[in-house]
Amino acid sequence: MLELKKGEEILAVVGGIASITKARELLAERLAPSEGEKLARIVNEDALIKIANAIAMCRPDSVFVNTGSAEDVQWIRDYSLKKGEERKLAKEGHTIHFDLPQDQARLVNQTYYIINPGEKMSSLAKTVLRSEAIDYVKKFMPGIMSGMTMIVGFYSRGPVGAEATIPAIEISSSGYVLHSAELLYRNCFADFDAEVARAGLFFTNVHSEGPNRPEDVPNARIFMDRSWQTTFSTFCTYAGNTLLLKKGNHRFSVDYATYYKVEEQLSEHMFITGMTGPNGRKTFFAGAAPSGCGKTTTAMVGSDFIGDDLAQFWIDAGGVLRAINPEKGIFGIVEDVNREGDPHLMDCLRGDGTEVIWSNVLIAEGVPYWVGNGEEAPDKGVNFQGEWFKGKTDDNGKPIPLSHKNSRCTLQASAIANHATELSESPAGVPVKVITYSGRDSDTMPPVWVAKNPDEGVVIGASIVSKATATEVGATGVNRQPWANAPFIPGALADYMQAQFTFFNSAKFTAKTRPIMAGLNYFLTHGNRGGSGDKLLGEKKDVKVWLGWLELFANGDVTSIATPIGYLPKFEDLAKLFTAINKPYDKTLYTMQFSLYIDKIIARIDLQQAAYSKEAGIPAKLFEVYERQKAELLQLKERFGAIVTPDQLAG
Ligand code: SPV
Ligand code: MN
Description:
Elements lengths: L9 H6 L4 H11 L2 H7 L5 H14 L3 E5 L3 H13 L4 E2 L5 E4 L13 E5 L11 E3 H11 L8 E9 L8 E7 L2 H10 L1 E2 L4 H8 L3 E6 L13 E4 L4 E5 L4 H4 L4 H14 L4 E4 L1 E7 L5 E7 L6 H7 L2 E4 L3 E5 L5 E4 L4 E5 L9 H8 L5 E4 L2 E3 L2 E3 L10 E4 L2 E4 L18 E5 L8 H4 L5 E9 L9 E3 L3 H9 L2 E3 L10 E3 L12 H12 L11 E5 L22 H12 L5 E4 L2 E4 L1 H10 L6 H8 L1 E2 H16 L6 H21 L2 E2 L1 H5 L1
Helix pairs in contact: 2-4, 5-7, 14-15, 14-20, 16-17, 19-20
The structure holds sulfopyruvate (SPV) and manganese (II) ion.
């Protein structure tokens, strides 16, 4: 359940401004004439009251209104440099930003949904009661911007005018945050009022890094008030914690789609990309993957890249699934980005002419370096923890890597050679025919398989797992990652799941337009498929083949092998696609990749069933699909044994 505008609005409580008259008085008093003139172009009263309250609460020395004009954006770049949040690098347009060592990724244990008493939330969500959140904000946010400038920006989460686009305000004392916002989101200052009227809502984000000291990070909070669609972020700078236009507002969009737009919209943690099939045919894909599982790489494999992180969907009047990217840029992980796997991105990172904000990489003589870049590495430099030299260890004697695992690059997507910029900006969105779900699964699911129907497709999404890292404990060695979206699902998982079943089964789709839904897995190892060692069975460039096969399958150009878990590709069809990427592919490898390891799949189903049975109100359909698949797998096992090859399956 989600009830909007329920409970006290924290900004108003702490800022103390309840009327437009009072808001206008405060704005007249606190804004320099130049900024007041700019803000006068915004007429939405709710927005002005929010901004006035943020000023009353944070008490900045001055306020800068970002209209998105070239001068305003340059002001933001200069402010960030002057404040020391970014430093210029050797290459024109490149800067480096370091987050504090304690703030190198999403602070999941300090991220909370603000809830009203009695609200039912996802079992995976951390919550804080409204009254406690108010206490925190009252204690830490008044005066948090004193000595600083507050920057106010207006952004559109999608092309202006698109059915699933929602506008938002980003307020921050950080030049880096607003600079990032300019690269990643569409500034909609000129259209803000009209967009709020069209969409019927807007999101608000208030952030301040405060003094930006390590000792304050324990006090950092990322609060998301789902009832008032407002975020609060303090004492941190990592964009995933501060630029809440991104994951903060994604959470609100998920919430809004789940409770207010059932069968109309979905909001997903997915890339969007187009593949070119025979005769120039374009087929668009959207795909989910947990953070750090190759989502950006997959997106850029397409011939018509649209987005690498988020997707907003709706079904149009003709029954076609449409998607837009709420972002216009990339906040991408750089580890393992190299010429071989990511040529287009490398062109932007090493070539000229692209504005890039680097974060938390190694800088040596003004040049950024990162782990896995395929280049020669310097012996020393400055990285996320300060001075660095080869062999440097931390307090526990552990080697400090050259760059942080989550170090990132921020740039506009339009800089990428295969970005379909015009299409990305179209309010009509792109027609999506293929939905994919992938995780990091070393031993169970094949590289690609297609759901037999929408219910089974929803179950593939519900069953994503990623291999646990060394820091995560799990009896089975895998983490469940429902739809790769679970960290961003505020409400009950059961409600979200029901919304997925309803959406993908919608009668608005026709037999021709209903998307196919597929699983992808790039992480099988030799050792787990009858060979030996931890080496992966495939490589990054194989992604083109898996997507290429799905493109053909979605358009009825290839047949498949039916199995209890869905449809598998035939060897001959894959072999042709591998030939097209100049790579040998043999039947032995195919058999290792596509044999069904029945005991493993059943163990995986058991793991999911056990976990979902603990969750209240899960739709019965999920368990029905698992039961049917299990029964059919056991029949197969009886006939062929525990490992069933594609040849046996094809019978
Ligand atoms: C992710 O972690 O999924 C990201 C980066 O896309 S963050 O903004 O931190 O969410
Ligand atoms: Mn993400």
